[in-house]
């Protein structure tokens, strides 16, 4: 078990947990070490079992998954939390991003996409499933779409869009015809320029400022 990524499942429907567990444990390198059905149990088991990843539903029958996420991250900041929910409302997704989670996947897309999300967040990157990105981009809750700040170069604008749509550094390097090291360096400079401490913040910035495109 020591060589496998430990995962905690949090959902108030046992049948959902069973289905997700079957999907995850069918993937080499992943193991479900615990399950929880409410926020208090989730926080307790996260502290007890120390999972690398928590797969969390938002709407729990007697509690709030986002509050549970915040409490887990306060206790164990290194934990990666991936939201697995049927909720696609942009305002809810934005609240999830603000709570510090590392990824967001819709239940209808669970399967290979959930596994992809887990592997992505474990590599210190942020993951949003494409349908969530689309919903955020088209949402009116973010206000009027401002013009792109002229202080960004064309390459920086492209880099913001590529990161926001979930491309990996290798894929970005191929598109921009740069080395991966150059992409990593440009990415770090860009995040410092914007004032973002994480990819999640950069995604929110890109959506809010109108950089992301479908």
The succession of helices and strands, N to C, reads EHEHEEEHEHEHEHHHHH
Cα Rg: 17 Å
Write the CATH homologous superfamily of the largest domain.
Response regulator
The top-level CATH class of the largest domain is Alpha Beta
From the spread of the alpha carbons, the general shape counts as globular
For the record, the CATH architecture of the largest domain stands as: 3-Layer(aba) Sandwich
Explain what you see.
The protein has helices at 14-25, 39-49, 65-75, 90-98, 112-122, 130-138, 154-164, 169-176, 180-194, 199-209, and strands spanning 5-10, 30-36, 53-56, 59-60, 63-64, 80-85, 103-106, 127-128. With 214 residues, the chain is α/β, with parallel strands linked by helices. The protein folds into two domains: 5-138, Response regulator (Rossmann fold), CATH 3.40.50; 154-209, Orthogonal Bundle (Arc Repressor Mutant, subunit A), CATH 1.10.10. The strands form two sheets. A six-stranded parallel beta sheet has the order 2-1-3-6-7-8, sandwiched between helices. A two-stranded antiparallel sheet has the order 4-5. Strand 6 (80-85), helix 4 and strand 7 (103-106) form a beta-alpha-beta unit. Helix 7 (154-164) crosses helix 10 and helix 8 packs across helix 9. The chain is globular and about 50 Å long.
Topology of this protein?
Elements: E1 5-10, H1 14-25, E2 30-36, H2 39-49, E3 53-56, E4 59-60, E5 63-64, H3 65-75, E6 80-85, H4 90-98, E7 103-106, H5 112-122, E8 127-128, H6 130-138, H7 154-164, H8 169-176, H9 180-194, H10 199-209
Parallel strand pairs: 1-2, 1-3, 3-6, 6-7, 7-8
Antiparallel strand pairs: 4-5
Helix pairs in contact: 2-3, 7-10, 8-9
């Amino acid at each position: 078990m020591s060589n496998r990524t430990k995962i905690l499942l949090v959902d108030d429907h046992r049948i959902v947990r069973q289905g997700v567990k079957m999907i995850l444990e069918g993937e080499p390198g992943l193991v479900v070490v615990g399950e929880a059905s409410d926020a208090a149990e989730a926080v307790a088991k996260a502290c007890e079992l120390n999972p690398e990843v928590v797969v969390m539903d938002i709407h729990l029958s007697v509690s709030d998954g986002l509050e549970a996420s915040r409490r887990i991250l306060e206790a164990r900041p290194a934990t990666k939390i991936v939201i697995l929910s049927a909720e696609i409302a942009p305002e809810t997704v934005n609240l999830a991003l603000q709570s510090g989670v590392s990824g967001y996947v819709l239940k209808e897309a669970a399967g290979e996409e959930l596994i992809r999300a887990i592997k992505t967040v474990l590599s210190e990157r942020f993951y949003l499933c494409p349908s969530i990105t689309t919903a955020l981009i088209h949402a009116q809750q973010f206000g009027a779409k401002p013009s792109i700040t002229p202080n960004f170069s064309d390459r920086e604008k492209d880099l913001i869009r590529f990161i926001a749509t979930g491309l990996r550094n290798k894929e970005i390097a191929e598109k921009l015809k740069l080395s991966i090291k150059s992409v990593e360096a440009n990415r770090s400079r860009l995040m410092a320029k914007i004032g973002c401490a994480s990819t999640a913040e950069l995604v929110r910035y890109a959506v809010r400022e109108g950089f992301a495109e479908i």
